[in-house]
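User: Could you go from structure to sequence for me? I need the amino acid at each position, not a summary. Structure tokens:
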């Protein structure tokens, strides 16, 4: 039967390494006290001594914080892209059964955020078809305004 490996938390490791650094007792005494192999304790001690400067390095903490913020923002953007793809696919499926006149009615010619070209792409409608009626109505209303008598 195999023996399950014990996993030590970072606080337990830190306590053991601090005992070694205090030099109150030998490594063998510490290994018997905590039931840990001397090789493992030596590895923890070496790792601690190698990473000790990062404890006082504020730049490393700032970099880690920026990495976490970047990852969170990246995750949020990926979720937004996914949601937009779902929305666009739904819009394309929904507008497939619409007649050309109904699609034209959905176009907002005064929109500043969504250009008419993009609206036509989303509605699967050619721009010339969209402009044709709008242009005709605009010209007609223009002429009515010119020749109206009061």
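Assistant: Here is the amino acid at each position, in order:
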């Amino acid at each position: 039967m195999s023996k399950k490996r014990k996993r030590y938390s970072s606080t337990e490791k830190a306590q053991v390494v601090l005992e070694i650094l205090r030099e109150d007792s030998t490594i063998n005494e510490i290994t018997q006290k905590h039931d840990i192999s001397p090789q493992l304790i030596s590895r923890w001690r070496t790792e601690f001594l190698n990473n000790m400067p990062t404890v006082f390095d504020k730049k490393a903490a700032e970099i880690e914080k920026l990495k976490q913020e970047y990852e969170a923002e990246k995750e949020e953007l990926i979720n937004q892209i996914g949601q937009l793809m779902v929305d666009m696919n739904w819009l394309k499926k929904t507008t497939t059964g619409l007649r050309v006149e109904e699609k034209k009615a959905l176009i907002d010619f005064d929109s500043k955020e969504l250009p008419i070209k993009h609206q036509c792409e989303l509605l699967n409608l050619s721009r010339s078809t969209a402009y044709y009626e709008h242009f005709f109505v605009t010209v007609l209303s223009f002429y009515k305004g010119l020749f109206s008598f009061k």
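One structural detail worth keeping in mind: Residues 117 and 127 are 6 Å apart (CA to CA).
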